[in-house]
Structures
1.
Amino acid sequence: MKTPISGVAVILPQRRKSHEGMFMFGRRFHLMILTGVCLLLTSAAPTFAVESALLDELGLSLHGFLDARSGTRLQTDPHQGQASLNEGRLQLDVNRVGDWATLQLRSDFVVDSITEDHDQDFEEGTGIIDLREANLLFSPHSIMDVKLGRQIITWGTGDLLFINDLFPKDWQSFFIGRDEEYLKAPSDAVMVSLFPSFANIDLVYTPRFDSDRYIRGERLSYYNGMLGRRAGQDAVVEVDKPDEWFSDDEWSLRVSRNLAGYEVALYGYSGFWKSPAGMDSETFLATFPALNVYGASLRGSLGSGLFNLETGYYDSRDDRDGNDPFLPNSELRGLVGYERELARDFTGAFQYYVEAMQDYDAYRGNLPDGQPARDEYRQVLTMRLTRRLMNQNLTLSLFTYWSPSDQDGYLRPNVAYKVTDALLVTAGANLFFGSDEYTFFDQFAKNNNIYAGIRYSF
């Protein structure tokens, strides 16, 4: 399986699961109740105000939201149920700012009818509790900050394209219609930030490997190279994941500074491919091969807009010669982007992204018989259009991916309307297309879906 940034084709092993039946009326009724609760909360503001005063006395701040949303596939998938999304979640965000440290706790409490028939995993965010953040921030020195615990980290310059951001992503959330914030999954890490006069330095140590929340098949169908077809619940991915504390660890480094109004950064990473990118030839389990990444970025103004450049070399440490057909080759990646206002309250952003496989001749020479070959250069173009109307209470957006090398693409239209400062309704779609089911985006064509949601924030 590939990710939007990796382009690594993997022959995935499988385990059998019983096929889930069609989406039942009871589950829709369940979500209707959650939506009703969300609407009732709009009349509960005085109660929250009293509780807020009590929290202030304790030195705590509480924020959060209640979110209910549902989605359905636009076609029949023999390996999945008809529903793509049907859940309610309550998020509570508690902060305490002390004299020497700041404590943050942020957790989602989830009722998800789609995963009721599947294994629930706390680390994968498929359980009743999805702990998003639990960390302590303190400053042992005037030029040093330390953040310890579960946290969400992001860096790099790409817009929904990632080169040097090697922190976990939740691709399942991204493809089914959850809010875009859920693309970023949490890391259990220590982040040390230094601010000397010559640069800003961020060093992140993750004592045990945090993988992506990748496509496994129990919720979204994907292309299974071993079966030579799309698969889903009939071939759920099983992995051999590095999970030894302080042995299977990760290091991430960013050094940045401002030069003549431009942000320049250098990056380094030592760890593993974030989604399954290889396979054990004996156990047929999907694996996360060792990986180093070295990169750089540049961001600043150009004309009436903003531009960004980013590059990274993916050093596949376990197969630097590219001779092992069960491991990914090294790659050189790059992107260039530009964003500007096209008209009043209407912005456009465009990106060109490329992956250049190293040792391509060795890759082709060792490709197993019958396996479709990747292109030496995988290219992706993206466009984001955003229009705000009705005093910016209505937002219309469209994000598109198109790969001229793979001849496939992905559309993410969305409409969001702010009914009040606290109440937001949204609707959108995830639409995949292409000419070959083994390419990254077209493999998900059976997952095309529409969704709608309502959120009350407090």
2.
Amino acid sequence: SASVAVTINFFVPRMAPGDPISAVLSKMESQGMRIVGGNKIVEAYRELFGLNGTLFDQYIRYVSNTFQFNLGYSISNFPSKIIDMILPSLPWTIGLLTVATILSFILGNFLGAFLAWEQGKQKIQFFTNFIPVVMIFGAIPFYLMGMGLMFIFAYTLQMFPVRGSMSIGAELNFNLSTILDIIYHGTLPAFSIILSGIGHWALGMRGMMISTIGEDYLYLAEAKGIKERNIFWQYATRNAVLPQVTALIMSIGTIVSGSVLVEIIFSYPGLGWLMYQAIGNSDYPLIQGTTFMLVLAVALSVLILDLIYPLLDPRITLTEQ
């Protein structure tokens, strides 16, 4: 799978028309700069960035460098190394995704389980009215949710900033004021993912809980006199959430791709915003570097969830004696 991702990562940027080196020189000339010996500069730069030779030669060179974590230099920000541009952006993406994904998964599954439990027990029919709202949230993509939140809370009410991760001129320090500033700027991007995710997970969990409520082991637990809240958490919810964890593993890639668009909308300085700038400048090495890091992040997330899954369901660790 890694080789397939690397191959796609190589060929997709090259499907775009135009030459990135010539585009950079043309941009410099349009800004009034005088380029002497432009053809020689283009050839030298093409060799420096691995764009010379046949497409097959470029591919072999790219694969070799990628598996050595030699991502090369950025075309549009030369002589900056790509890894030096990615490392400052990576914590912002990881922090945003980790917090938003965990909160949306926990809150969404709790909401779905609670709605199904109350509806199945026919105690409070009022909660049934929340189901259409949950369905609406689950159908809205991350980026549309982000645009809506931006319009309401940033432009109309002016409660939150429109862009960025920190106040202008602020320094990144580990103190309370800086942390609160980061949370303040990251609220709308995070809620774009959380609100859409809550609807998605709530609908799935509600379906799992409805099928779980009629199981015999729940009636047996009630007959034994176990408290209802213990039945809800330890018997019903714990069993119903297992397919949801599997769905989370399967949807990590979708969540990451959605967060990329959210970062672009809010100009959030993560890998998504860096990739957007790279695409605008036809910076092949930077596009390939950011995409490669996103693929690695997704693979690592799936591995971590696979390792956690046996803790939730010990049955999958059993082997035949």
3.
Amino acid sequence: ATSPVSIVHIGDSHIQADISTGTVRELLQYDFGNAGRGLVSPLKMSGTNEPADYTFNSRSPWNTVKLMSPNWRQTVGFTGASIRPTSNTSEITIGTSGKDDYNPFSSVTIFHNVKLTVKGITDENGNSLSFRSIPSRDYTQIMLPSPQTKISVDFTSAGDLTMFGATLSGDRPGLFYHAIGNNGAAYETYNRIGNVGAGISPLRPSLVIISLGTNEGFGRLDTGAFARSIDRLVSNIRAANPDALLLLTTPMECHKRVTKTRKVRVKNKKGRYRTVTRT
């Protein structure tokens, strides 16, 4: 196939760290071709951990919110990470990390709301690059003149622009393995966003994998409400991505440690008794 195959994997902390999904990405791209790093999110900027194989930062000040924040001061998009510049002129730096294999990209798609106008692009050495910007309602695609591993984007915005992430594409055949993970997330957390299906639609997924349920399992579980939460998220994704296959995985096995204790009276060397707790 000449068009890349796209897989989107949605989950909680297991996916956010990108340890298992990073290995799956590497193995699949080894066999079927590396179309690019794919989706990257401003997780560190929003106040949490992010994978080590990409860079998403800025010299400009931003207001930030993450998915598990109790109160959202701004829109939270489908990635669960939300950053908003404090002025209408700002800069963002996006790229792949030199710590891993060389993974260049020749186009970047930035996901956001409100109008974004790209004013300039520089490479990692500060050299200005020619570019072509293709705006759309929910994202802006930036075409680069040559493969890069890191770029800085200077832009202006109208209104309360909020940015959610970006895709890095090599514009070559192969496979994308996009990972969307948020610590502590559950089905209902993603339902709170409301438009996850529409958000991932520009990624053109052939397969959507949902790995949730772990965090629900560690609390009081209303099975009826849980089933409705699953149905709501699946329906939302399916409505916006009717040609995508959906795969739901169950949480991995774990054991909750339970230690039984008891109070006993013991005598010390002086013959005095005291009460202690023993397991």
4.
Amino acid sequence: MEKLSLRDRYTLVTGASSGLGHEIARQIARDHGGNLVLVARRRDRLDALADELRQNHNVQVACVTADLSKRDDVERLFAEATAGRTIHAAVLNAGVTYFGHGLEMDFAAFESMLATNVSAVVWLTQKFLPYVIEKSPGGGVMIVSSVAGTTPTPFQAAYSGTKAFLNHYGMAMSEELAHVGASASLTVFAPGGIATEMGEKSGTARKFKKGDPGMMDVDVCARLALAGFVRRRRFVIPGTLNQMNDVLLRFVPRVVATSFTARIFRGALPPR
């Protein structure tokens, strides 16, 4: 297939109120001339971003308020996003994390994480891919995962597990699409550390700060995500350091890799 073109077409972006999703949406409008459907829980932030993109880049922008941990919201999102417009691409970026001792994680928080990071992504992927193939051939879906899904990550055990699922699910689905010659592509984007609001909320920003080795600026990360998406790459890890770590850890016993990762993250834990 040719490169994925976003110009003058609608791309849906979940988790667009802050962080990577916010910057991806901005770059789709600014650099690709694409229209947008912005999705998040915080409507005020969505409206502010929508106004900015309409004014500065002359694109069409719609907003949908949804909590992707709730199945009813996920189903409503798809219905509202596709009402009166054709979606050509979807960036499934919304996600939540938990940083701390795994045994101290509230199970309700885990269920909410599982619903947001896994169930909503699978549901939307299974809805949008057939939709795009039928309604807008040549489009695609990008699942935003994490390098935390390539190696077990202590103190982010549940989050790491959800991202491991996305890595395997996304890669397997992309192969299925290629096998049948589908007119749509699926990309998994797996960044490492990004200087965003998520790090501040989770507490990892106590150790991993903007400018540190391995911490990528959000604008650079978004640009690399979109570059891989439009080229229809199946799996993208951005950044030389992240790519080197991914290769090296494949040759290290899992217990050693996990212990090494634990030492890196232990320093970000709050004092007990």
